[in-house]
Amino acid sequence: MSGRPVRRGMGGLLILLVSACDQGPMTNQPKYETFEPAPRWPHNQSARVPVAGTVARGEAIDPRVPETLPMPLTRELLERGQALFNIYCSPCHGRDGAGAGMIVQRGFPAPPTLHSDRLRQASLRHFYDVISHGYGVMYAYADRVARSDRWAIAAYIEALQLSQYARVDDLTAEQRARLEGGSSGQAGEGAQQ
Amino acid sequence: MPQIFPRRANSLVSAMLWGGLVGGVALVIVAITLGSSAHTTGVNSTPEQPVPFSHGHHVGGLGIDCRYCHTSVEQSDFAGLPPTSTCMTCHSQLWTSAAMLAPVRQSLQHDKPIAWVRVHDLPDFTYFSHRAHVNNGVGCESCHGRVDRMPITTQQKPLTMQWCLACHRHPEPYLRPENRITALGYDPAGDGIPGHELREHYGIRKDNLTECVTCHR
C-alpha cells in the first residue's frame, strides 16, 4: 500500500492542530506597550520619567517665557482656547469664569471671579504663569496643558472678560439685528472684537 | 475471490462520511459561537481596580471632559492615563480623608504610581492610534461605550477585527463633528450632518481603511 494518502492525511491534521494553537505569544509579544509593567525596573514601570530639563519634541528649547502672546491672535486660537478652557478650567471657574463651576458646587474652595477689576487688568502672562505654576489651592497644569495651549487659554480668558462687559454698540449691524430680532442669539459665545 | 472487507464495512464507511460532515459543521458552529462570545472577546469584563474609580460619577455626575485626565488623546497614539497629581488636583481639597482614596494619597506621598488594570487591551499585532481616530471624527463613545454610566469601567464593545472593520468599511454613520468627539449619548445619525459630508470634511479615504497595513504593521 502506498504511504502517500496517509502522509497527506497527517499533513492535513497538522494544519488543523497548528490553527488550533493558542495565540498567546502573538497576542502578548515580548515588547512593552505604553505603560506596560516591566518587572525589576523602578516601580515595575516600563514608562520612564524624563530627566529634569527635558524639552518635548516641537517645544521651544529656550526656557524664557515671552512677555505676551508669542503667536498671532486669530479666531482659531480663541476657539482652541475656548475648548481648552472648558476642559481644564471650567470644572472650577465655570464656563463663564465667574468661579462657580461644578467642583466648587461640590465643596472645592471657590476661585475668585475672572471678571474682577484686578484680573481684568492682569496681563496675559499672568494667566500663563498661573496655569503653569498653579495658584493657592490650584495645582499647576504645566504637565497637562502645552505652552502654546496656555497662551490660547490666556487669550480666551481676555475674550471671556470682554464678553461680560460687551455693549450693544460693540455689535456689528447684523449681530444687532439678530439681537433685537429677539432670536435666541449666540451673541456672547464667540466674544470676538 | 475472497472479500477483503466484511459486509458491515459498507455501513461503517457511510457512517464515517456522514459523521465527519455533521461533526465538521458542528465544529465550525461551535468555533464561531465561542470566538464571538463574551467570554472570548471580554465584553462586560470589569476588572477590579486598586481604587474603585467611577467614570459615572466624574463624567456623568460632574460633567468633566474626557480630556481633563486623558490629556494626550489628541496628540498621541495613547490616550494617556492621569498621574496621581491629576486626581489630587481636586482630592487635595475634597474627600481628603475618605478611606476609598487612601491608595491615591499614598501614591502621591511615596511618589509611586497607582497600578490601574487595563480594561481595553488589543492584541500586540494590532496597531491602534487614538490620535488618528479622535482627530478624524470618531468619538470616544464608539469604542468605550457609555462610560458616563459606568460605576466601574467595563469593556462594552467586542474589539474584534470584524467589529473594527464594520466601521472601517462604512465609517459614515459613526462620524461626528469636532466639537462632539467626547460627547456621550450623542447620536451621529440624529445630528443632521450627513455622514458622507463629515467623511469629506475629514478627508477620510475609504480605500486604504481596509488595507492590512492600516492596523497590522
From TrEMBL, chain A:
SUPFAM superfamilies: Cytochrome c. Keywords: Heme, Iron, Metal-binding. One of its GO terms (molecular function) is metal ion binding. The keyword Transferase does not apply. Pfam families: Cytochrome_CBB3. Residues 76-161 form the Cytochrome c domain. InterPro entries: Cyt_c-like_dom, Cyt_c-like_dom_sf. PANTHER family: LIPOPROTEIN-RELATED (PTHR40394), QUINOL:CYTOCHROME C OXIDOREDUCTASE MEMBRANE PROTEIN (PTHR40394:SF2). This is Cytochrome c553. It comes from Halomonas cerina.
Automatic annotation (TrEMBL), chain B:
The chain crosses the membrane at residues 12-34. Keywords: Membrane, Transmembrane, Transmembrane helix. Residues 127-217 form the Cytochrome c7-like domain. The keyword Signal does not apply. It holds the Pfam family Cytochrome_C7. It comes from the Bacteria. This is Cytochrome c7-like domain-containing protein. It comes from Halomonas cerina.
